Amino acid sequence: MGYGIAYPFGVISVVLFVQLVPRILHTDMDKERAQYEAAADVEIRHKHKDLFYCDSMGFFSFACAIVGGMILAKIKIPLPGGASFSLGTSGGPLIAGLLLGHMNSIGRLSVSVPKNVLETMREFGLALFLLGAGTQAGAGFVEILQEQGILLFIYGAIMALVPMFVGFIVAFKVLKLSTFNSLGSICGGMTSTPALGTLIRVTETDDVASAYAATYPIALVMVVLASQFMGIYL
Length: 234
Prior knowledge:
- It is built from 10 helices and 4 strands, in the order αααββαββαααααα.
- By secondary structure, the chain is mostly helical.
- Helix 7 runs antiparallel to helix 8.
- It is found in: Cell membrane.
């Protein structure tokens, strides 16, 4: 019930946030992109060459990430108080993808995926994710809101907005991260995949996904652990 009320605003707020902040801060988008491209060029020069490719589309790498992700998702770690932790079908594939993306190859076997294929699969996967999440969150939304009142929606809005604003201020002002990195970290910290898709379109670079990928696993673990421990001890 709480998920169904809070989720729509949680998605919309982060999506709007990553679009409005660069305009409010008058961010030089070309300069930010140039910095990312320079860092990406350094990484490309350090990658292995003369690798063997199983297929030109990179579906072998997708298959490896899916299989590895599902294996990780099934691992359950017992916790004190009778709770257990698992990465689930979101965290498992993400960790597997991070590992494969970092390695780029296994020996002389390439596990990289062409950029155009990545973009297509990302947009398709994002559409499926939103379809499933929207259907789940929208079921009985109006009825629940009428039953519980507008106060429940306000609570959800506060829980979405406060950590988002505080997190961005800490990242941008205290840690001195760039605007792109700060916004990517916020998307990951809020575990908002739709916001990442919006951020990529706003910034016109896929490299912001690196900041998202760095914070998403930590946020996912913390949410899972917090919800279980609060359920046990509260």
